[in-house]
């Protein structure tokens, strides 16, 4: 057994700090508080060092350390209430601490895959909207403090907004200046405000954005925010999206984020029939197929409620994506945000690349797929109606 001073000296003799790949401090004495600490090499302002990431609940606290003191800092943290640390360097090594605060070194063996540690640059992700950059509307909505630093409990929303803007940036060339964007089922509109900020303040496209939602109180609230932010080309309306018509033929893009069930199909249909250059949709609550779906060959899946629900959602969005392709859109189905945040994390993004290219064979194949599962689908019916049996190809 070693005291802390002797343990530090022994470990420093057993491993090469320049080859320290990682260390994990775990097995806390107390159940609350920090439950794990990870150590990795980083470059800080051009100097090599190590970063300690301390995990407590949903928070991660970072601390940087000079190479000469990284081992002593590991033992200090262990003495504060951790029983174990695993190190990977030119050698593998495990440190254990007992109730008396004495240390045991074990598991020592050479690491055949060891290489000099890669000291990654300690930089935050280069977001479109950056943490620490003051943006008035983000502060007013409670996303950041008065210095522009993102509030801890709003980190997920902050990442979601930036993820959406990154996906928007990829297709912005298909959104002409002075055109119109329609947000169908806008809700409280964090993403709508972010889109306005990106396209009109950062990119200076001078687009007009119209948000529609059925809830009059939500629309009133959003319009008050719009006036406060000075977003004079953004307006919200309490209107059923089924009643929206093309505004002067200038609608270049529609977005629909978590419009429930077949409301997504109505929104997609509007985008298709108006020939919008860009369609971005995050579907939600795909109940339509779940209530119909039946296939005796798939009973192993469909007899379980949760699997039936997820399979129905996948089938629904696969049909929607295929219809968009048949209508001349280059279509991608991608992860919008991490699954840990919400299971409704799929985005369908479509860009108009050619005219309607539907042919009877492809349409028949899609129709047969739906027949195989005994379902009717709203967007299919809006776009194609019912296919006559005589038109189907075997």
Q: What would you say about this model in short?
A:
With 394 residues, this protein is α/β, with parallel strands linked by helices. Helices cover 33% and strands 26% of the residues.
Can you tell me about this structure?
The protein contains 12 helices and 15 strands. It is α/β, with parallel strands linked by helices and 394 residues long. The strands form 2 sheets. Strands 1, 2, 3, 4, 5, 6, 7 and 8 form an 8-stranded mixed beta sheet that branches. A hairpin with a 2-residue loop joins strand 5 (82-88) and strand 6 (91-97). It is elongated, with a radius of gyration of 28 Å. The chain starts with a helix and ends in a 10-residue tail after the last helix.
Outline type: elongated
Straight-line distance between termini: 78 Å
Could you state the order of secondary-structure elements as H and E? Answer: HEEEEHEEEEHHEHEHEEHEHHHEEHH
Sheet bearing the most strands, described?
8 strands, mixed
What structural class results from the helix and strand content?
alpha/beta
Number of helices: 12
Low-confidence stretches: 388-394
Helix content: 25-40%
Give the overall average pLDDT: 87
Beta-strand residue fraction: 25-35%
Q: What value does the Rg take, in angstroms?
A: 28 Å
Number of strands: 15
Please outline the helices and strands.
Blueprint: H1 4-14, E1 22-28, E2 36-44, E3 47-56, E4 59-65, H2 70-79, E5 82-88, E6 91-97, E7 103-110, E8 120-121, H3 136-140, H4 155-169, E9 180-184, H5 190-202, E10 208-213, H6 216-229, E11 234-238, E12 251-260, H7 263-273, E13 278-284, H8 287-290, H9 299-302, H10 305-326, E14 329-335, E15 346-352, H11 360-372, H12 378-384
Parallel strand pairs: 2-8, 9-10, 9-12, 10-11, 12-13
Antiparallel strand pairs: 1-2, 1-5, 2-3, 3-4, 5-6, 6-7, 13-15, 14-15
Helix pairs in contact: 1-2, 4-5, 7-12
């Amino acid at each position: 057994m070693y005291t802390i001073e002797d343990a530090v000296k022994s470990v420093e003799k057993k491993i090469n700090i320049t080859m320290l790949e990682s260390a994990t401090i775990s097995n806390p004495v107390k159940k609350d508080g920090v439950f794990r600490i990870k150590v990795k090499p980083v470059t800080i302002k051009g100097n090599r060092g190590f970063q300690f990431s301390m995990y407590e609940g949903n928070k991660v606290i970072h601390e940087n350390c000079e190479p000469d003191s990284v081992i002593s800092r590991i033992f200090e943290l262990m003495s504060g209430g951790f029983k174990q640390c695993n190190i990977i360097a030119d050698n593998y090594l495990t440190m254990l601490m007992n109730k008396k605060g004495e240390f045991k070194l074990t598991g020592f063996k050479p690491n055949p895959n060891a290489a000099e540690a890669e000291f990654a640059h300690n930089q935050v992700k280069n977001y479109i909207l950056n943490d620490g950059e003051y943006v008035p509307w983000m502060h007013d909505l409670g996303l950041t403090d008065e210095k522009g630093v993102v509030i801890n409990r709003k980190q997920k929303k902050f990442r979601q907004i930036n993820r959406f803007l990154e996906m928007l940036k990829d297709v912005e060339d298909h959104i002409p200046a002075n055109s119109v964007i329609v947000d169908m089922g806008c809700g409280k509109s964090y993403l709508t405000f972010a889109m306005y900020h990106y396209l009109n303040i950062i990119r200076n496209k001078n687009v007009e954005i119209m948000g529609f939602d059925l809830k009059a109180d939500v629309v009133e609230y959003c319009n008050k925010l719009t006036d406060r932010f000075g977003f004079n080309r953004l307006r919200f309306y309490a209107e059923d999206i089924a009643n929206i018509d093309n505004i002067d033929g200038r609608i270049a893009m529609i977005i629909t984020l978590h419009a429930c069930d077949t409301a997504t199909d109505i929104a997609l249909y509007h985008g298709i029939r108006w020939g919008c250059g860009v369609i971005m949709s995050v579907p939600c609550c795909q109940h339509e197929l779940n209530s119909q779906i039946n296939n005796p060959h798939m009973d192993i899946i469909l007899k379980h409620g949760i699997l039936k629900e997820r399979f129905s959602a996948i089938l629904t969005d696969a049909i929607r994506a295929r219809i968009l392709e048949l209508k001349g859109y280059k279509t991608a189905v991608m992860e919008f945000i991490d699954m840990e945040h919400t299971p409704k994390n799929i985005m369908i993004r479509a860009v108009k690349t050619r005219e309607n290219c539907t042919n009877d064979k492809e349409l028949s194949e899609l129709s047969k797929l739906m027949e195989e599962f005994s379902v009717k689908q709203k967007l299919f019916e809006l776009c194609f109606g019912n296919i006559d049996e005589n038109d189907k190809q075997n």
